[in-house]
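Sanity check

After download, print the first record. It should look like this:
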Amino acid sequence: MPINVNLTPQLEEMVRQKVRSGMYTSASEVVREALRLMQEKERYQTVKFDRLRQDIRDGIQSGEPCPWNPEEVKRTRPGKKSRQTRLTMPAILRRPIVIDDLAEIWNYIAAENEIRADSLIDTFDWKFQELAECPIIGNNRDELYKGLMSLPVGRYIVFYLNVPAGIEIVRVLHAARDLSFQFGPPA
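Expected structure tokens:
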């Protein structure tokens, strides 16, 4: 069953160049290779999306939420004072695995610069407080878990739930792990 495909002039020239280069023997071979690569990319995105869903489930199932304390992640240096939070602040809860996520981030950055690593944890703390005060600023992520929200923080994405007392941090993952944030959910 032959299929006719219309290409833009730029794509037609690209196909011609590939055939002229000797890498391919025909335009059909170029198109087949392009479709094979597209199929491979879609499989890869599906696998990454499934892994992200599993990461979110792991966060939800990692245990009961407990209060957030940035000092659990940072190494406390002598004489360093932690920032005080306001008494009227909505609760910031976190799943147990969040400490592992943030400790991994802290350790990676601290290998080069502990002060920068502490500063990033302070940034997360500030963002968590901002989210607790206004949880709707994040993006709805129902495609991963019902009621889940996310907010990018630098190269990372904070996944959280809006709960009556405030927010519940579920995971903090590198943005490269969240294909749906970059490309939308898989079809």
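If your output differs, re-run the checksum step. Summary of this record's structure: The CA atoms of residues 33 and 62 lie 43 Å apart.
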